[in-house]
Amino acid sequence: MGTRLDSRETQVLEVLDRLYEEYPDTTISLNFSNRLELLIAVMLSAQCTDERVNKETEHLFEKYETVEDYADADVDELSEDIGSITYHNSKADYVVSSARTIRDEHGGEVPDTMDELTELKGVGRKTANVVLQHGHDIVEGIVVDTHVQRLSRRLGITEETAPEKIETDLMPLVPEDDWQQLTHLFISHGRATCTARNPDCAECVLEGICPSSKLDGDVDLASGEAWS
Q1: Does some domain include residue 60?
Q2: Res 1: pLDDT
Q3: Which of 2, 41, 70, 94 fits as disulfide partner to 30, beta carbons 3.0 to 4.6 Å?
Q4: Catalytic residue IDs
Q5: For residue 46, what is the domain's CATH number?
Q6: Known binding positions for [4Fe-4S] cluster
Q7: What is the pTM of this model?
Q8: DSSP secondary structure letters along the chain
Q9: Does residue 109 sit in the same domain as residue 49?
Q10: 2 assigned to some structural domain
Q11: Which residues are annotated as a binding site?
């Protein structure tokens, strides 16, 4: 029986407790060795799997090592280098443009503020949050990717649909010390069990408190549509 707990606050805490136990070692799955590589990897990961990004950056990070390498890169050549990445043409342009801004306006160092990061071409709040958290150890928000978006709605934690509104809604509910890990926990659970199209509710550690459970519910709150 999937029934949400009495308040959103208690729902969040119970969800976190169960997911911490289920995924004790979860963390970011992108491969990187410095802040620049982290920024590039996160930019490439938009609407693309981390597995695919890691495969491409394995050779990309050998060819391009510095901010100057990216700033001086030919956009068409870089686009070919990341050819299997979704929207590789646009992302190549974003990377070169951002590298030039970092070189010319930030002394070659990846910025450490939300405002400066989101001024980079192709960098939104989600990307900036990841770079701040894993590159600068600064946690000032919650990274809302497709998994966080789906699970937070499916679990009845939020009714918002836009990522930035979901983040704003979640921040007062989630203990600040858990802001970073919530994202990793939701990603791990979203990949392993609570998938977009066919979640395995029967094996889900959250089934008993999930108002979207297919075992006794008719509607997926993530989409607002009836289960097929």
Answers
A1: yes
A2: 58
A3: 41
A4: 126, 145
A5: 1.10.340.30
A6: 194, 201, 204, 210
A7: 0.93
A8: -----SSHHHHHHHHHHHHHHH-TT----S--SSHHHHHHHHHHTTTS-HHHHHHHHHHHHHH--SHHHHHTS-HHHHHHHTTTSTTHHHHHHHHHHHHHHHHHHSTTS---SHHHHHTSTT--HHHHHHHHHHHS----S----HHHHHHHHHTTS----SHHHHHHHHTTTS-GGGHHHHHHHHHHHHHHT--SSS--GGG-TTGGG-TT-TTT-SEETTTTEE--
A9: yes
A10: no
A11: 194, 201, 204, 210
